[in-house]
Amino acid sequence: MTDKAPSGGDAKRIPLGLASRGFRGVIDAIEVTDSANGVPAAELERRLLELGFVEGAHVQVLHEGPLGRDPIAVRVDNNTIALRRREAMAILVA
After folding, report:
1. Which of 19, 24, 49, 68 has the most CB atoms in a 10 Å sphere around its CB?
2. Under 8 Å between Cβ of 56 and 26
3. Domain 11-93 falls in which CATH fold?
4. 83: enclosing H helix or E strand
5. Tell me, what DSSP letter sits at residue 67?
6. Residues 8, 27, 24, 40: is their CA dihedral positive or negative?
7. Nearest Cα to Cα of residue 47 among 64, 58, 35
8. Residue ranges of domains in the chain
9. Largest Cα–Cα separation, the chain
């Protein structure tokens, strides 16, 4: 038995927080593992879902901040949203 997920597409999934400017992809999952700067995991997941970060949504990284590349501007379907990279790490894209 293997510890890898059964889906063959999992190998190409990356956190949106690691994507560079110009990246285009589709949201595969939201996986919040711990709190981000005092925000409980359930609250961060709820916020991301309310902003439109749902499975199957098309995303594009439009801009990166100058210092530390934070925040990033992301287009989700037809909305443009600014996110901290640590929050974007919970969004898995393919």
Report:
1. 19
2. yes
3. SH3 type barrels. (2.30.30)
4. strand 79-83
5. S
6. negative
7. 35
8. 11-93
9. 45
Q: 27-65: per-residue pLDDT in tens?
A: 999 999 876 667 899 999 999 999 999 999 999 999 999
Exposure letters 47-63 (e unless 16+ CB within 10 A, then b): ebeeeebeeebebbbee
What is the rounded distance in angstroms from the CA atom of residue 92 to the CA atom of residue 17? Answer: 9
One DSSP character per residue, 8-62 reads GGGGG-EEGGGPPTT-EEEEEEE---S-BTTB-HHHHHHHHHHTT--TT-EEEEE
CB atoms within 10 A of CB 66: 7
